[in-house]
Hints:
The structure is a single chain. By secondary structure, this protein is mainly β. It folds into two domains: 6-136, CATH 2.40.50.140; 148-305, CATH 2.40.50.140. Helix content is 12%, strand content 32%. It has six helices and 16 strands. It has helices at residues 6-12, 67-71, 148-151, 211-214, 267-277, 281-286; strands at residues 22-29, 33-34, 46-54, 57-64, 80-84, 87-90, 107-115, 123-127, 159-169, 173-176, 184-193, 201-206, 222-231, 243-246, 252-253, 289-290. A hairpin with a 7-residue loop joins strand 10 (173-176) and strand 11.
Amino acid sequence: xxxxxxxxxxxxxxxxxxxxxxxxxxxxxxxxxxxxxxxxxxxxxxxxxxxxxxxxxxxxxxxxxxxxxxxxxxxxxxxxxxxxxxxxxxxxxxxxxxxxxxxxxxxxxxxxxxxxxxxxxxxxxxxxxxxxxxxxxxxxxxxxxxxxxxxxxxxxxxxxxxxxxxxxxxxxxxxxxxxxxxxxxxxxxxxxxxxxxxxxxxxxxxxxxxxxxxxxxxxxxxxxxxxxxxxxxxxxxxxxxxxxxxxxxxxxxxxxxxxxxxxxxxxxxxxxxxxxxxxxxxxxxxxxxxxxxxxxxxxxxxxxxx
Length: 306
């Protein structure tokens, strides 16, 4: 069928009622958002957004309501989609933004693709990777992996991806979303090493829309975290307080979930695997810890400093 592209959509969307099919690759995926309220009677008040791209650039795609439970887990980073009967709307200005792995990629920020179960009823088709043709010009998924030795020099709020061997995972904790609120964020702390520094990555991992992975993080697993944010210098001794926290677009993967993920081709991921092959598993196991209370940033040594 006749296809359109994202660049053409941005130029013509106001003058069109129906749009030609789109062929895009998913580059980023947000956590699932529940926006239900007691006074509003909605069957499935869910929303998730994705950053999708073709040869012309990248745009947000929003999945609404009952399409979320049907499609959310099937739409992975790297998946190629054929979209038909979708709607185009002006972008929501206050949405968080994923940081593209390819800094040169053009971003169409004024509009977004809206996928609904009606008005119009969107048709979504997943194209198997082996059927994707080079002439379609779809971009590859790119990452921004860093090593632990590079972390201390990165600015506050910098976006990056990391891989490491888990040496510590804390118990699941919770924090109120707002003061006096009944809603809580669920999170846990973890340490991961990659052989490039004596210090581990300190990771604050909030529960994403991957409960099966979040609950199974344990020492000695290979942990990949994407779209993490650098938190720098919270106290007078910044070298001890730099850590990484998940963002709205973070994805977490552990041993057993890596197969087929696009990051397995990344050079820094391959370097980490090579380093792990040179390590003694028995030696590493002796250094691992699980559970317990983990105060961070750590309080000063004396009350006087406090």
